[in-house]
Inverse folding.
């Protein structure tokens, strides 16, 4: 998993950055190879002196554990599957499959690309004739990915695991091998690997992935068919053998920007509202930015009337929708660069990594990292780097409280 300077100030603001960095490695450069391990090109390293923070890479479970530790255990209720919900002027009530219910002021659907909250919300809106036609479409699936993280490896055989920076390699198959396989090193002498196949290029590959039976046996079947693929460390099979099968996952790469993010007391964030291709490393970052901006608007709700709640949720969407929409072309372009196998995509990749001036690439990096929202009701993290970032919107509630304080005569 990768996090960028677009969200790291929020981690610093919450006092979590040091622990996050303790299980991460900076991702300053990435090398692209052909399947014969001939160098295609290198991604431009972005200087932390300019943008303030390095991009970082780590194994996803460590971030999960870090975030989970911040939540009091009594606030967590596991094995709850949402069946339905309904709201009125006073509250929203959820019903679960175990015949229990929960009641509150606001429901935040942060339950991923196949969100149960979104499905029920859309079902209700569809019955009322309020659901846009675009939101009833299926998410397109262009790629399938198999991911895993090895156990600790022997540095004598894999010396790159000892480097301070993450070794990031992208190997792109030829026209008859519609795969891209990626490796990067993380702390603990481990290597995270990712195998991506582009659908619609090879009939045999498409047939292989039509199965919906994504159990470990099917993952093993896919792994057996690609063990011979070369990496700078040997073969993928060497990494597979060092990875427990329960640590292997297979997922679709889908993308969809839904028009409906909120209604009444319900709001969607992250993949539930917008699914980006992970090629640009922006999916998790955008979900976290959603959470930050939504928190800012929730803080401004005072009093908690239905009218104020609906306004806050609509303002959240207004703040985020165009920011997200503007990233879709970039995610598609990045996917073509590192996952694409058509003739045009190969030509495009050659041009970008051999003809585009590095200064232009660096300018694009600086532009894309300028947006860094933080919680505006907490002390902001210090500014880092020389890059001018987009200014933080102040809290309406805090501004009003300050105005009221100035308007109140001081006590004698």
């Amino acid at each position: 998993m990768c996090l960028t300077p677009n969200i790291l100030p929020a981690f610093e603001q919450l006092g979590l950055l040091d622990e996050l960095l303790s299980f991460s490695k900076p991702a300053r450069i990435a090398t692209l190879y052909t399947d014969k391990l001939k160098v295609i090109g290198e991604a431009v390293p972005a200087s932390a002196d300019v943008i303030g923070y390095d991009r970082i890479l780590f194994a996803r479970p460590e971030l999960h554990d870090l975030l989970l530790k911040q939540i009091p255990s009594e606030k967590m209720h596991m094995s709850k599957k949402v069946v339905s919900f309904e709201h009125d002027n006073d509250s929203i009530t959820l019903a679960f499959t175990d015949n229990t219910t929960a009641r509150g002021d606001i429901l935040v659907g942060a339950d991923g690309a196949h969100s149960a909250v979104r499905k029920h919300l859309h079902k209700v809106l569809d019955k009322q004739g309020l659901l846009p036609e675009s939101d009833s479409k299926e998410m397109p699936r262009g790629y399938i990915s198999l991911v895993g993280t090895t156990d600790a490896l022997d540095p004598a055989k894999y010396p790159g695991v000892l480097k301070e920076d993450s070794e990031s390699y992208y190997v792109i198959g030829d026209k008859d091998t519609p795969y891209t396989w990626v490796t990067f090193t993380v702390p603990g002498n481990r290597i995270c690997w990712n195998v991506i196949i582009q659908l619609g290029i090879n009939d045999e590959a498409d047939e292989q992935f039509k199965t919906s039976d994504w159990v470990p046996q099917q993952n093993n079947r896919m792994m057996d068919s690609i063990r011979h693929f070369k990496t700078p460390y040997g073969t993928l099979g060497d990494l597979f053998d060092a990875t427990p099968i329960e640590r292997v996952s297979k997922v679709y790469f889908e993308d969809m920007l839904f028009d409906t993010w909120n209604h009444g007391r319900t709001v969607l964030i992250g993949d539930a509202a917008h699914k980006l291709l992970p090629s640009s490393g922006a999916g998790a970052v955008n979900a976290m930015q959603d959470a930050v901006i939504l928190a800012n608007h929730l803080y401004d709700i005072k009093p908690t009337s239905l009218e104020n709640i609906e306004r806050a949720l609509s303002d959240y969407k207004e703040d985020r929708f165009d920011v997200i929409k503007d990233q879709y072309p970039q995610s598609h372009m990045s996917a073509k660069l590192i996952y694409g196998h058509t003739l045009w995509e190969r030509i495009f990749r050659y041009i970008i990594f051999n003809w585009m001036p590095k200064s232009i690439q660096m300018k694009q990096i600086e532009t894309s990292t300028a947006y860094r929202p933080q919680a505006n009701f907490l002390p902001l993290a210090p500014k880092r780097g020389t890059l001018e970032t987009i200014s933080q919107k102040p809290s309406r509630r805090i501004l009003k409280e300050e105005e009221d304080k100035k308007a109140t005569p001081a006590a004698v």
In short: DSSP finds 14 helices and 20 strands in the chain. The longest helix spans residues 306-325.
